Amino acid sequence: MLSEQSAATVRATLPAVGAAIEQITERFYARLFDAHPELLRDLFNRGNQASGAQKSALAGSIAAFAGYLVEHPDQRPDAMLSRIAHKHASLGVVPEQYPVVHEHLFAAIAEILGDAVTPEVAAAWTEVYWLMANALIAIEKRLHEESGSQEFREWEVVGREEETADVVSFRVRPVGGSPVRGFRAGQYVSVGVKLADGARQIRQYSLSGAPGEDVRRFSVKRVHGGATPEGEVSGHLHARVRVGDVLQVSEPYGDLVLDGVAGRPLLLASAGIGVTPMVAMLASLAADGHDAPVTVVHGDRSPADHALRVDHQAYADKLADSDVTFFYERDAEPGGRSGLVDLSGIDIAPGTCAYLCGPLPFMRAVRGQLIEKGVAPADIHYEVFGPDLWLAA
Question: What mean pLDDT comes out for the span 4-18?
């Protein structure tokens, strides 16, 4: 895929670009939003921009993609591209925006690296960019075709349930009563809201109901301020959205789905609000009559903080062979475990396929424990809520 000449140039300059990538992306976003303030107002997550998380995620993905091409010039990292493409498709990113990103990104590279950006270097990194961009455009086009639409539609809130002090579930149905398309357990939707300052902000929420229902359920954890900015959209949904209100909702996207798992032992491990896709997966497995072992692990601050706890246990109990362990940092009840998630005392069947969702430190720790127990890295799948900082580590 990457030409030999460009591969040699990228290999030689990757350390310098990698060392300056966060400066480059910081300058890139400043340039981009100066020229196109509507992108920050109506597309990009302002909270992630304020915290620096989006900058780190972009830096990590560019460096990871370039490094992969250098080591595997005839291949491309499809798993990484798929995750990014699903997120872009859910947001409504269009092909015409990629040249805009290229313009401001390469201006930022030239500004930060100065004379080191020779015409040869610029050409090589331009090749890298368009290999990545064109791959994403193609994947996003296919995803839109599969979903039937790339437009947000109006959905009416027909149910609101207070799951915990910080988590609310919303049940929504299309305005006008059009049929509800199916989704795959583990997928998410984008929800767009108009905020008080006129900005249209978009966030992704996993579908936490059973696939096949005539309404969709998604669950929202309120993001409190502190080390990170207060959640604009989660706060709006918690405080203002009630039954009868209308939300802008995308079609379902996301690649953390149950592919080729019939007859295979599974591990579904979650922490905090990461429980949401796992509940949908358990509902799907129960409906399909999955009869291989399913190990369910969840970590939370306390039983009272464990959102969808009743559904979590009930769907697992419907399976032919399930083992459920809940870990709580405090107030663990009989049958629960105290402390953080620890797989040392949990049997993992040979050939297990694992699905992880929760805070990044939790997923890294569980992944390491699974590999120690003999689970193949290729069989460990994960979902990150927000920018994928795994690549930035």
Answer: 92
pLDDT at 385: 67
CA atoms within 13 A of residue 146's CA, in its CB half-sphere: 15
Q: What is the DSSP string of 347-358?
A: ---TT-EEEEES
* Element (DSSP H or E) covering residue 156: strand 153-162
228-245 pLDDT, tens digit each: 678 899 999 999 999 999
Structure tokens belonging to residue 284: 């799907």
Question: Exposure of 52 by Cβ count < 10 A (0-12 exposed, 13-18 middle, 19+ buried)?
Answer: middle
CB 206 within 8 A of CB 188: yes
Give CA separation, 311 vs 16, 57, 210, 276, in Å. Answer: 50, 33, 10, 10
Strands 353-357 and 266-271: parallel
pLDDT for residue 228: 64
CA separation (Å) from 207 to 214, 250, 312, 324, 367? 13, 12, 14, 21, 24
Average pLDDT along the chain: 91
Contact (Cβ atoms closer than 8 angstroms) between residue 123 and residue 129: no
Return d(Cα 83, Cα 57) in angstroms, integer: 12
Instruction: Please state, for a pLDDT cut of 70, what percent of the chain lies above it.
Output: 96
- Cite the active site residues: 98, 140
Amino acid 342 reads: D
39-90: pLDDT as tens digits: 999 988 888 787 776 776 777 788 888 888 888 877 778 888 898 899 999 9
- List the single range of 52-66, 147-161, 239-253 with lowest mean pLDDT: 52-66
| CA atoms lying within 13 Å on the CB side of residue 301 | 9
Q: Helix or strand or coil: residue 132?
A: helix
Q: Determine the pLDDT at residue 227.
A: 62
Give the CA distances from residue 15 to residues 9, 57, 280, 392, in Å, rounded to whole numbers and listed in that order.
Answer: 11, 18, 42, 15
Q: Encoding tokens for residue 381?
A: 């799948």
Q: Which of 102, 122, 91, 345 is nearest to 201 (CA)?
A: 91
What are the b/e assignments for 197-233, b being 16+ CB within 10 Å? eeeebbbbbbbbbbbeeebbbbbbbbbeeeeebebbb
Amino acid symbol at 333: E
